[in-house]
Protein 1
Amino acid sequence: MPARLLQRPCPVCAGPDHTALFNKHGLQLVRCRHCSMVYVNPVEEDWADGSRYDQLGTPFYLSPDKLQSDYNPVRFSREIRLFRRFVPQGRVLDVGCSTGAFLFHLQARYPGEYEATGIDVSGPALDHAESKGVRVLRTSFLDTDFGPAPLDAITFWAVAEHLMDPGRFLRRAMELLRPGGRCFVLVPNFRSLAVRLLGQRYRYIFPQHLNYFTAGTLGRLASTLPATRVLHTTSMHFNPIVIVQDARSDGRFVPDEERARLLRKTTGYKNNPLLTPVRHAISGVEALLGTCGLADNTVLALERR
Ligand SMILES: [Zn+2]
């Protein structure tokens, strides 16, 4: 039976008016007429309520390739550097923690400095996080009582693009922070060099991603949050192999197993000493793209006033 389709307003400004941008194999992307946010509309019900993620455990999040990539020490190194700059210690919640790799690396690198918990809706991924010693909650973030003590930091690494109503999650996050507490939001950058070169052939324009932010639209969403100050905006990560592969493709959706395999390979390249010169060249390009806001992901660090 085909999934039920849900219509939605703009996830940034709640405006109802939009124009069609393109349709990729049935995935309809539209642009808000008011704030120019790009988002999927309509959305299949089981992507909207998160129930599809339980089924995704084995083919993607728990595939040996994806796990090997996530648990490689270089994975999350940029996120951890940014996080440390603004949060030297304290109580941390990682929303959409998946297999727990960010918190695992953070605690391994800075033992005793963070009291960390992850929360997610994907049961099999959380089993893996627990097996690595990461403390997890198997509840919905919006419905969970986190107790009276406010949090020092909340992270959303590649999560907000999956949510029907990302503003609701970020509002809740800001409420849970102490004054001066920090919230980090990383999303794929719809203004990246990769999107500019590939258009709709880009592999990360696919059914799991409901929202396609730029630094501008993410900033606009942050401006709707109460008692929130933007501390830092940046753009990070660059994977030229994805650009080369997707440029050659016919724009089909890339299967989960294939995406996982490439992630493991590229993480492996980052550890190969023979590739040091290539890596330096790519890092140089990444830094340049980051400066121009054209790297693969756009990131905001927010502070509760
Ligand atoms: Zn809008």
Protein 2
Amino acid sequence: MDKLGELKIDARKKSKSVDFRMPKIGESLDKFQKRLNLKLLAQGRLHFIKYLESVKGQLTQEQFDLIRSSALNQDNLMATSDKLHAKNIETKYLLIKRRFYVDADNVVRDHKNKDTVVCEPEMIFDLVLCGHLKNEHIHWRRLHRFLKLEYANITRDFTQLCVGYCSECNADGRMRPQQKYRHYNIYSGLFPLERVHVEIITPFTKPIEGTYAHLLYFRDYHSRFVWMQPLKSDSAKDLAQALSTFLLSLPRIPIFIETSTLNRQDLFEVCESISSQFALTIGLGMSRSVVFQKNGISRLRYQLRLHQKQCLDSWHMCLKYGATNQNSSYNTRILAIPGNLLYSTISDYARQFELKREELMEKLSASNVVELRSNGRRQGTLYLEDEASAFKMPDEEYISADFETESYEDEDLPPIDDRTPINSSPKVSNFTEPPSSISKKLLLMSDKPDANMSPEITRPLVFENNDSQRYATGNVSIEL
Ligand SMILES: [Zn+2]
């Protein structure tokens, strides 16, 4: 390694023990610029603004100016973005009004983010680089941890992107292509509650409250909203009870329930009993968005372990740390708060949702739809998605310890042991085939997200299933 490289590593190590020098908004880069490639910096500023504007949920410079001058109203807000329209403008306006305010010193602050300072969008690039340079070329991850203590709107991605334009750290000036505009909700084409992921999870070696060895975890694909139910055991009876409680308390029954750790035959039988007992229509999905599922599970386990003592003592603390906190905080995967997306303002949502369910069911072969009857009367319906078409769902990229929201420090957390199985219950198994009577005649069913609703779907994706076989799907892709 060359001298400069060694020095930089030394400086980084040192920076862990010295005070961080917080950059100020508007602080000049001049004294550092002579060492940097100015062309790359200029390119970076342009790229950054373009990137910021592509990120949903981030204030643009124009919106920021309106807030700072207290001139924001629905009309001028509408003019700031072509994504806003008559149907969503009021909500957006109220959200902004509730969230941002100008303090006595004319500084814009984010109420939802511990009242930290909102950096003027056009100044973010220089602020981040200034922080990087004032602190001996500090790594972007570490830099972000310090910046977010003071600034509300400097995300991990922003920090990484801006630091990439330091010509000393990135001598060849190459940017990672996936860094461009990778912000969007990959499941925006699904409705809230269209697909819900369910797993049995055994978070600790000891039972919660001395009673609940497992928990049933649910996560909505579209909104990432999480629900949990405590489980005394993983018996079919307990599973049916928890699943019924969940389903019966939802505003509508999800179109598909997905799982990667539950035995499908078991899940089928449990759903069959629930469906007939309560006359419900339930669908079992076959999507193999394994990474999405893994990310959700490891995130939950991580957060419960962080608060292990409280969580072991109280189920409600598990709910708080595993579900409520994440449901109510900003999620960078979807650029929104899960709770807001779950009850989002998709126009005509209730009707569209049922229409979609009907369409999907109509396309299924008769053998994929099981009508449950009792004394000749229909008592609920179960339907099964076809495996091949389900592969058309995009999957998430793997998120390791950094996860989706940015509301906590990741330095002092217990490590996640990759070898620990997600679910240590004896019933854990990989996907098994649906019951043979049903699987024999599975027909293709087109359930890829509505092309009009998810324009981002265009590039081939490769999925890995639990058996590590690789599946390539022909026509799903993500716009980068
Ligand atoms: Zn650098």
